[in-house]
Write a structure and sequence with these properties.
Belongs to the FliL family. With 147 residues, the chain is of the alpha+beta class. It has four helices and four strands, in the order H-E-E-E-H-H-H-E. Helix 2 packs antiparallel against helix 4. The radius of gyration is 35 Å and the shape is elongated.
Length: 147
């Protein structure tokens, strides 16, 4: 009686060694890709220099105006605009209009309180930056008198 070998599902020794190597290689490649992505993200958030503030340019003084306050009082306010370097000579009418809009009708106690005055100045600065498309860095008071 002769015995014949039956086919088995087992792979030869060479094939069995290739599967783990190939799996390890894929895992290593995936790990490297993930590390590169994380490294790029870390560079973007931590190491990339932040955009710098525009350089200050010319200071544009504006003529003082009188604004009506609540209770028959008034405020004489003078402003100066700190422009960014290279900005065109700006017409101050938009800034004066924003000042009239923000300060008109305010109580004397509001405009004389230092904290409230700073809040109003921040509001004015934001309105002026919007009106001049970010060509104004800062708004300064040059005259501030209530009566």
């Amino acid at each position: 009686m002769t015995m014949t070998a039956l086919p088995t599902d087992k792979k030869s020794d060479g094939e069995a060694d290739e599967t783990p190597k190939s799996s390890k290689k894929k895992t290593l490649i995936i790990a490297l890709v993930v590390l590169l992505a994380l490294g790029g993200g870390a560079w973007q958030f931590f190491l990339k220099p932040a955009p710098s503030e525009p350089a200050p340019g010319e200071v544009l003084p504006l003529t003082a105006i009188q604004v009506n306050l609540a209770g028959g009082h008034y405020l004489r306010i003078g402003l100066a605009l700190q422009l960014v370097e290279g900005a065109e000579e700006a017409d101050g009418s938009k800034a004066l209009d924003a000042a009239i809009e923000i300060f008109s009708g305010q109580k004397v106690s509001t405009v004389t309180d230092p904290e409230e005055r700073d809040k109003l100045k921040d509001e004015l600065t934001e309105a002026v930056r919007e009106a001049y498309h970010e060509e104004v860095l800062e708004v300064y008071y040059t005259d501030f008198v209530t009566q």
